[in-house]
């Protein structure tokens, strides 16, 4: 018996899976030898990571002078990349926290990978402020700890320090949230493993046994962490925007920045989730768990946030004109028509104009267009940060100090290097942990999957057509080999589970 | 006292007088049945409640909704821990910044007052969330007895996969009572029944 929740809602799990098949499908990538495409991608990623190590070492050895920053443009690719990565790191917690609070069941297919992506993206983001310090080994100075310099404390009034707290809190909470969800699934992998692998997964699954009380607390924990992470995820990019908004630079000193940054962060984060998930669902054969319905839902979020960002761009321009403040007016005129006009055009095309194609349901559900757009948006959002940072600084109050900025090979290599760091971590993740939340997928199988058993379920649209399944009196689908189990009722005193159940 | 027959790999391991003889010191004898569906599990738990059978624990591959009230589990009070830790983080963050900027090392930044409350809000908020989340997650693992190297009772490998388990502690039960439990399992559509010694 299969059914739909509503005529407009497609099932979120397809393929008439049993619980065991779900386990098999999702655990398989962690249990088999990596495919050739994985190995090749991994090698390229590790090479990029090596490039990262080299270019960071070069920066530290030669000094920040190896970057093309100058007295006028003192933030360049480093902070652009920082903000870009932090933005990407917003989708995971948004999906797992805000969509949990909104009871959006489609989050279950993508939340695990999106949260992993969040954690790795925040790790990449964190590199840039650290490297920009020039003396990496003094990075501990950013934390307020009792020291022999007075003790001299950090400046708690500075948005840069707020950033330290926001990013480190966000990283910690995202990691805890992600891992709490991962523990039951690591236990699933553990119970399928043997030998050393079982020992390793035993340590990392914390001895999870699926007790009813544990599940109850786990759900409670997830809900409260979601409640905490929701304002947190909104606060992080708000505080990142304060880096700019609390300054007195025309073009930065605007109250629209916090909401506009947050919308942009969700926008770019979803684009990166789509980039990764479209590849992952194909390579790891997860098409039944990350369905077109999931992709369409994410594209709707992209359309919404892209339009919010577009409204924000236009509002900025309008307010700059309406303010009657010539420095502000010049800043925005310069942003659109100045030396970096090409990045403004790129930003507008990628972020505002192109996502509008998702008004069309056909394009929203097209894998090709979704993938194409996800790359496009990632580029567009990078341009947005570059526009905000470089164009604003390039033309300051003193025309004699006006300048132009292009990155050096070191800056470019560091950026490519963080992509290497990100993909290396993500590829390792796909090999060691279930990429889709197994327990959560199972829990929606009969409430939002193709085996829906709730009110208005379409009766028997499936039973009888497939020899693999039969309907029980409860209207649930169980494989026949489980139904006619001959071993029913035997007592297995040694408890060794020596008889496999199928 | 009735005898129960214990099967081991299909062979008859012999008749015994009581369940108690199997149990070494510090161990519990657990009789558990595996169901293949959460609807059957819920029906079985309802039947156990109707028969006044004392379920030791229920193990499932995912959270089964509607199970908690049947088992008489009280609502989790984790949120209380979250609130307490959050309050501590909030007071600590705000108090620390206040102490630093008014007592320990007052510095004027941009002509603002030493005690510049609005500027303290972001960090106070972040520390509230940080303390609350870290504290609550720590409490979660401690009260559940989970952690790296923890070895709580694990009855069957398929419980984290697709089997729903109802477990009874039969250490102190007579053979007759165990028979009653096996009847109950058969009646409620169990798939397999197992018995296992576990650490108490």
TrEMBL record, chain A:
Q: Where in the cell is it found?
A: Cell membrane
The way it spans or sits in the membrane comes to:
Multi-pass membrane protein
Regions that span the bilayer: 38-62, 82-102, 114-140, 160-182, 221-240, 260-280, 301-321, 341-359, 366-388, 408-429
UniProt keyword annotations, A-Z: Cell membrane, Membrane, Transmembrane, Transmembrane helix
Record-linked Pfam families: NrfD
Q: Name one GO cellular component term.
A: plasma membrane
PANTHER family the UniProt entry points to:
POLYSULPHIDE REDUCTASE NRFD (PTHR43044:SF2), PTHR43044
Q: Which family does it belong to?
A: Belongs to the NrfD family.
What is the recorded name of this protein? Hydrogenase
**What is the source species?**
Neolewinella litorea
Automatic annotation (TrEMBL), chain B:
Transmembrane helix found in the keyword field: yes
Keyword Transferase: yes or no? no
Which keywords belong to this entry? Membrane, Transmembrane, Transmembrane helix
Q: Which domain of life is it from?
A: Bacteria
Which InterPro entries does the protein's record reference?
ActD
Transmembrane intervals: 80-101, 121-143
UniProt name for this protein: DUF3341 domain-containing protein
Species lineage: Bacteria, Pseudomonadati, Bacteroidota, Saprospiria, Saprospirales
């Amino acid at each position: 018996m299969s059914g739909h929740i509503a005529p407009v809602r497609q099932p979120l799990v397809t393929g008439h899976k049993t619980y065991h098949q779900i386990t098999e499908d999702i655990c398989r990538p962690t249990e088999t030898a990596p495919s050739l495409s994985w190995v090749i991608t991994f090698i390229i990623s590790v090479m990029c990571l090596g490039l990262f190590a080299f270019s960071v070492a070069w920066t530290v050895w030669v000094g920040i002078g190896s970057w093309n920053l100058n007295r006028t443009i003192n933030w360049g690719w480093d902070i652009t990349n920082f903000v870009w990565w932090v933005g990407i790191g917003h989708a995971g917690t948004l999906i797992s926290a805000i969509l949990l609070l909104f009871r959006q069941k489609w989050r279950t297919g993508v939340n695990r990978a999106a949260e992993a992506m969040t954690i790795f993206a925040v790790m990449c983001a964190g590199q840039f402020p650290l490297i920009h310090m020039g003396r990496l080994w003094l990075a501990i100075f950013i934390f307020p700890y009792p020291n022999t310099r007075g003790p001299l404390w950090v400046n708690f009034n500075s948005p840069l320090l707020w950033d330290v707290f926001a990013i480190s809190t966000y990283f910690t909470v995202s990691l805890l949230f992600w891992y709490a969800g991962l523990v039951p699934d690591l236990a699933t992998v553990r119970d399928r493993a043997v030998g050393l692998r079982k020992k390793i997964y035993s340590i990392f699954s914390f001895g999870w046994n699926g007790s009813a009380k544990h599940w109850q607390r786990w759900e409670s924990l997830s809900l409260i962490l979601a409640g905490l992470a929701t304002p947190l995820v909104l606060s992080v990019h708000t505080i990142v925007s304060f880096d700019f908004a609390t300054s007195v630079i025309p073009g930065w000193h605007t109250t629209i920045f916090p909401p506009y940054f947050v919308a942009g962060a969700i926008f770019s984060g979803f684009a990166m989730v789509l980039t990764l998930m479209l590849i992952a669902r194909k390579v790891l054969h997860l098409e039944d768990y990350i369905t077109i319905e999931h992709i369409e839902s994410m594209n709707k979020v992209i359309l919404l946030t892209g339009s919010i960002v577009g409204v924000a761009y236009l509002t900025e321009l309008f307010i700059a004109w309406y303010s009657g403040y010539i420095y502000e007016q010049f800043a925005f005129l310069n942003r659109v028509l100045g030396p970096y006009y090409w990045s403004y055009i790129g930003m507008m095309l990628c972020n505002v104009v192109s996502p509008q194609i998702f008004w069309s349901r056909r394009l929203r559900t097209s894998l090709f267009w979704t993938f194409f757009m996800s790359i496009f948006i990632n580029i567009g959002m990078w341009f947005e940060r570059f526009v905000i940072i470089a164009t604003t600084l390039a033309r300051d109050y003193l025309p004699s100090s006006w300048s132009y900025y292009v990155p050096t090979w070191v800056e470019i290599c560091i950026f490519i290097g963080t992509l290497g760091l990100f993909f290396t971590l993500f590829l390792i993740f796909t090999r060691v942990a279930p990429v889709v939340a197994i327990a959560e997928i199972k829990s929606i199988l009969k409430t939002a999957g193709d085996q829906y058993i709730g009110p208005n379920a379409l009766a028997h649209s499936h039973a009888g057509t497939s020899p693999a399944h039969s309907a029980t009196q409860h209207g649930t689908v169980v494989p026949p080999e489980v139904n006619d189990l001959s071993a029913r009722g035997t007592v297995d005193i040694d408890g060794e589970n020596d008889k496999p159940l199928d | 006292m009735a005898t129960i027959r214990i099967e081991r790999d299909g062979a008859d391991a012999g008749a015994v007088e009581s369940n108690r003889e199997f149990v070494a010191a510090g161990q519990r004898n657990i009789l558990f049945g595996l169901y293949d569906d959460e609807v059957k599990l819920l029906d079985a738990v309802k039947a156990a409640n109707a028969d006044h059978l004392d379920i030791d624990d229920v193990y499932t591959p995912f959270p089964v909704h509607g199970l908690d009230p049947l088992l008489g589990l009280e609502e989790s009070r984790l949120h209380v821990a979250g609130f307490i830790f959050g309050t501590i983080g909030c007071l600590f963050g705000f108090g620390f910044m206040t102490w630093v900027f008014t007592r320990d090392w007052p510095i004027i930044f941009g002509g603002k007052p030493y005690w510049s409350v609005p500027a303290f809000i972001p960090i106070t908020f972040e520390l509230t969330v940080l303390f609350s989340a870290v504290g609550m997650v720590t409490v979660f693992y401690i009260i559940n007895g989970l952690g790296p190297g923890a070895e709580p009772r694990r009855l069957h490998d398929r419980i984290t996969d697709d089997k729903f388990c109802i477990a009874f502690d039969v250490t102190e039960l007579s053979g007759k009572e165990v028979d009653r439990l096996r009847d109950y399992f058969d009646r409620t559509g169990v798939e397999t029944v197992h018995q296992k010694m576990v650490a108490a």
